[in-house]
Amino acid sequence: MIDERLVLLLVVAGVVLGLVLARFLRGVSSRARNRVAGEGEREAEAILARNGFRIVERQARAPWSMVVDGVEVPFEVRIDLLVSRRGKRYVAEVKTGERAPDPCHPPTRRQLLEYAMVFDAAEVLLVDVPAGEVRAIRFR
């Protein structure tokens, strides 16, 4: 007959091992995602340069706030690139995925709208890295 303490020890060891493995796999996935994003941003910079844009700032940040139940809640918004062309500045968002480069894709659309508001941009550039295109987006 198997000792109950041994069974308990094996169960606990299995749970701990599972947690360690899950944490490791999340780290691997996160690093891979960051690598793809970094490569996409470098490709996007080349695409923008071919279209006459100059990089002003990478990962530009802007403070903003909202009022929740009468209380102001500050937060920060970060964009991929702040670029310029012919004396005009633009916010540029880089997308590398399958659906994300579509400006009608709801998460992308909301992100572009937030950037237009926070950075007071008449146009937001959507850089579709897989297609090698820069799209100008305006909101009414």
Concise summary:
The protein has 140 residues and is α+β, with helices and mostly antiparallel strands.
Write the layout of secondary structure elements.
Elements: H1 4-50, E1 54-58, E2 61-68, E3 71-78, E4 81-85, E5 88-95, H2 106-118, E6 124-128, E7 133-137
Parallel strand pairs: 5-6
Antiparallel strand pairs: 1-4, 2-3, 4-5, 6-7
Structure write-up:
The protein is α+β, with helices and mostly antiparallel strands. The protein has a single domain, classed as 3-Layer(aba) Sandwich (Trna Endonuclease, Chain: A, domain 1). It has two helices and seven strands, in the order αβββββαββ. It has helices at residues 4-50, 106-118, and strands spanning 54-58, 61-68, 71-78, 81-85, 88-95, 124-128, 133-137. The strands form two sheets. A five-stranded mixed beta sheet has the order 1-4-5-6-7, sandwiched between helices. A two-stranded antiparallel sheet has the order 2-3. Strand 4 (81-85) and strand 5 (88-95) form a beta hairpin. The radius of gyration is 22 Å and the shape is elongated. The mean pLDDT is 88.
